Amino acid sequence: MALRAALQELTHKYIKAVQNLDLDGQIAPRLPDCIQQFSPKSLGLAKPLNSEEFRHAAAGWFPEFKNFKFDVHNIITDTESQKVVLQANGSADTIVGPYINEYVFILHATEDGTKLKLVEEFFDSLKSVEWLEKLKAAREAKENTA
Predict the structure, then answer these.
(1) Is-contact 85 76, C-beta < 8 A?
(2) Residue 11 contacts residue 86 (beta carbons within 8 Å)
(3) Of 19, 49, 107, 127, which one has the greatest count of Cβ atoms within 10 A?
(4) Which of 125, 131, 15 is nearest to 64 (CA)?
(5) What integer is the mean pLDDT of 101-123?
(6) 67-105: pLDDT as tens digits
């Protein structure tokens, strides 16, 4: 399979898994030592996560999203560096109100374009911090009433 075709197939599988909040689908195309890096790093929201750490963290967020939408509106494929850049918007209903965010993913693939070595995820930091603070407060309030 040509490299461009392999990268496109890998990317479309990854997008579908994100759209469906499918953790297994997001983990499956990764190498065992693949890292997910959340950025901007300056926020300190999460250290780089290996696949199992990502699975554990996402298992705590994904159930909060209802009617999740992930709309990709730009894909740039670079065969020379085996990278794909995705620009997307995400939204969902949550217990603390609407979740709305913008993303840029940089998918770093293996030389043959079939597996992910690194996933860099950039997101709207202000929106993320606000939403996480609301979610934390709602969870704490729920624990205090239980």
Answers:
(1) yes
(2) yes
(3) 107
(4) 131
(5) 96
(6) 999 999 999 999 999 999 999 999 999 888 888 999 999
Residue type at position 43 = L
One DSSP character per residue, 62-129 reads GGG-EEEEEEEEEEEEETTTTEEEEEEEEEEEETTEEEEEEEEEEEEE-TTSSSEEEEEEEE-HHHHH
- Give me the pLDDT at residue 128, please: 66
- The token duo for 119 is 């996933």
Query: Is the separation of the CB atoms in 72 and 49 below 8 Å?
Result: no
Distance between CA 25 and CA 20 in Å, rounded?
9
- Strand, coil or helix: what is 47? coil
pLDDT in tens, 34-74: 999 988 777 766 689 999 999 998 888 788 889 999 999 99
Check if the beta carbon of residue 85 is closer than 8 Å to that of residue 106: yes
pLDDT of residue 125: 65
Spatial separation of the C-alpha atoms in residues 57 and 64, rounded to whole Å: 12
pTM: 0.87
Q: Is the peptide bond before 32 cis (omega within 30 degrees of 0)?
A: no
